[in-house]
Amino acid sequence: MGSVRMTAAALAAGATFFAYSAQANGTLNLICSADVVICEQLEGAFEKETGISVNMVRLSSGETYAKVRAEARNPKTDIWWAGTGDPHLQAASEGLTLEYKSPMLAELNDWAVKQAESAGYRTVGVYAGALGWGYNTELFKQKNLKEPTCWADLLDASFKGEIQIANPNSSGTAYTALATLVQIMGEDKAFDYLKKLNANVSQYTKSGSAPVKAAARGETAIGIVFMHDAVAQAVEGFPVKAVAPCEGTGYEIGSMSIIKGAKNLDNAKKWYDWVLSAKVQSSMKEAKSFQIPSNKSAEVPKEAPKLEDIKLIDYDFKTFGDPAKRKALLERWDREVGASAN
């Protein structure tokens, strides 16, 4: 009997231990600024591998930056994954994110490490992608439209009401477009261009990838987006062709940051290291995510736009990731473009 009692006691102790272990895994409050499909794939895989319960919210990078700023005194978020690098750099410069040197840094491409170094290791590059647009080839045939291969072509009167782009206040993609045009043309000429483009824009969306999804559905002819978002629609079977503008274009370094004051810091670091691994980044193509991964050993999807074939500008992340510069550009956009938006 004694041995039976000991076994029962041991089982009870074991049950208590396992219950504690499950609780010890804890939770992670994650904001994901990529497409919801990849957000959900990563959320599920991380939960399965670690036992950590992930509370994931999908917000654009501009929205996330605003939320992180608003909650600075009492952060509700532990980690912010993906979205354009500019708002991550802005958050870093304002001390809203935490310095963290991941043991995975040695495995990353130089551009991802430089992103970390420039921010005092308060952010890191997780993928890269070039800016361009995608257009609906079937609509173009029906309406007898000519393929736009340059930024200048988008001003053609034949595209009146045929273009969508996101609002740069909410979308990192659109802010990258704004900053790109300023760097290519100079600020005054860029705003002259945007005012003329406004005549052809039917809608300024909240999300950066929404314009090409609308083009894929035939709701608009052209969506100005990151090229990998256009490729994703083509891979899904939609009649979408991706274009890299002839004058040159900017690019994003999609980034990741741990929020200063994170309540679940250890779990945030676990996610950070996990999502920088070659295995995890190689799996992103399964969610039709066609960016260039930051881990040098990760498999690059064959459909991904090849950066070496695109005329990329020397994008000034430091200048356009500065909060004062961003504020000034967005205020000017609101006054000169947004106020007269269709």
What does this structure look like?
By secondary structure, the chain is an alpha/beta fold. The chain is about 45% helix and about 15% strand. It contains 14 helices and 10 strands. It has helices at about 1-25, 35-50, 60-70, 85-95, 110-120, 135-145, 170-185, 185-200, 210-215, 225-235, 265-275, 280, 315-320, 325-335; strands at about 25-30, 55-60, 80, 125-135, 165, 200-205, 220-225, 240-245, 250-260, 290-295. Strands 1, 2, 3, 4, 5, 6, 7, 8, 9 and 10 form a 10-stranded mixed beta sheet that branches. Helix 3 runs parallel beside helix 4 (about 85-95) and helix 7 (about 170-185) packs across helix 8 (about 185-200). The radius of gyration is 22 Å and the shape is globular. It starts with a helix and ends in a 6-residue tail after the last helix.
Features:
alpha/beta; 10 strands; 14 helices; 342 residues; globular; disordered N terminus
Task: Please give a quick description of this structure.
This protein has helices at residues 2-25, 36-50, 61-70, 85-93, 110-118, 137-143, 172-185, 187-198, 210-216, 227-235, 265-275, 278-282, 317-320, 323-336; strands at residues 27-32, 53-58, 79-81, 124-136, 163-166, 201-205, 222-226, 240-243, 251-258, 292-293.
- Span of the ends, CA to CA: 83 Å
**What string gives the helices and strands in order?**
HEHEHEHHEHEHHEHEHEEHHEHH
The percentage of residues in β strands lies in 15-25%
Number of DSSP helical runs: 14
Structural class: alpha/beta
Radius of gyration: 22 Å
* Helical fraction: 40-55%
Strand count, sense and closure of the main sheet?
Answer: 10 strands, mixed
Give unreliable regions as ranges. 1-24
Number of separate strands: 10
